[in-house]
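Q: I'm writing up a methods section and want to include an example of the input and output format. Could you take the sequence below and give the corresponding predicted structure tokens, formatted cleanly so I can copy it straight into the document?
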Amino acid sequence: MAFMAKLPQLALNTSLLPTGSRVAVAVSGGADSTALLLALQEQKHALGIGLSAVHLHHGIRGEEADGDRQFVRNLCESFDIPLYLPEADVPAQAARDRETLEEAARNARKEVFQGLLSRKEADLIATAHTEDDQAETVLLKLIRGAWLEGLGAIHPRVEMPPGALVRPILHVQRAEIEAFLRARGQGWREDSTNASHEYTRNRVRHTLMPLLRDFNPQIAGTLACLSELAREEAERTEREVERLLPQLLLPGKPVRGGGRAVGEEQSVSIEVERLRTLDLPTRRRVLRAAARSLGVRMSAAETMRLLRLCGLQPETAVHDLTVSAKPGAKLMLPSGLVAERSARELRLVRRA
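A: Here is the clean output for your methods example:
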């Protein structure tokens, strides 16, 4: 026991792991998830949690994936940890739903996690995202042009009623993970696809991050801090928008003689003069929230075009001369919305 006390420990975010919780760890066999499982195994009595593991065979990578599954099975047997071993045909799912393999795999995992929670086999699903994952995700969001909430990147806790998904080592660096495992003589599996430059995340990990470390050796922590600040700022402004939205959104469209007509099509309207009283960041968020109420997510460019349609585009912005602010103007957006400008209102209609 004295020897064990000297081993490096993983500083788990225990606030995500309430006493009495049944925690199922998503274990791929890689270093991060192996370390998370061992750390929780060592601390489960102190935390007062139940522990199990889940490993999804995605139907990809053939014998290598079979080896991953056997590794996780052996690991869990050695510590007497209950293990769930679901399978999915991700290539078939990707073809059926017209998704990339990454999207299909992510959706398959989500379905498995939701099933465990719904069947009451766990209260929490714990995944092994680390500070390095967070930093890479922030960079990917920046590259793709994310909104502020997008820069929040990976959240420590995501609600998945009747439970939640948690990331207890989101603040831990990969170097700490490997030191933790080596001190215990514990091996792990390496996914051969992690070395492929076919995937954008791998290029960020193996090419961009090393370059940025030349400018700032602590870049991973800096980007992780940025994500936390962005997440907190976004949550604050979203609460304000949620308060405003019921006062601003109008159903359907006005009819002669008063009142409003609500047809079969999904639509909402906003009075342009009410929008004009708001500051620019709030205008943008209200428009995006209005689109979300119809089940549509708008890009920054689409939001700017809506502001132009309302005659509320800031003077410093590049004007899109193809968008008119005159009553009767109509705009079709790639996201699936039709925007119509009347003398008083902006109306958003979701296309079938």
